[in-house]
Amino acid sequence: MARLRAVAEGLGHAQVATHLNSGNVVLVAPDAATPERLAADLAGALREDVGFDVDVLVRTRAAFDEVVAANPFPEAAAEDPARVLVTFFAADLDPDPAFDAGAYGDEQVVWAGREAYVHYVDGMGRSRLTPDVLTRAARQAGTGRNWRTVLALRDLLAARED
Description:
6 strands; DUF1697; alpha+beta; two-stranded antiparallel sheet
């Protein structure tokens, strides 16, 4: 993730850190940067660096804190954070009305704003509710992180000084 950090630093961002090899970066952006502008700038710089398009989703610290607070599965997340997934999307969700999570097993799905929360009751490994199924139901591309990663990113964000 050194390359990702270098790209973000090259755009003038401060306190840049990445989390493992997850493709997540936290940073302090200039005051005038909107999430949309930041996403476009990072996507452009990454395209220039790696030679292909990379989807970039941005959340402010406040928005990320709201994602954590809105978790509809707090008990499941506390018991086994690997079984709760948050999928982040660029735009507000308008999921396919024909989507039925029950058709994929015991998984529970809650659509909320620009995120989908999924509780994989029996774990993700054998679930038929794959990330591809979820993004098709959402009718837009997204990127999922398990609850352990969400909390690690929250902690990295909290450590940034404005």
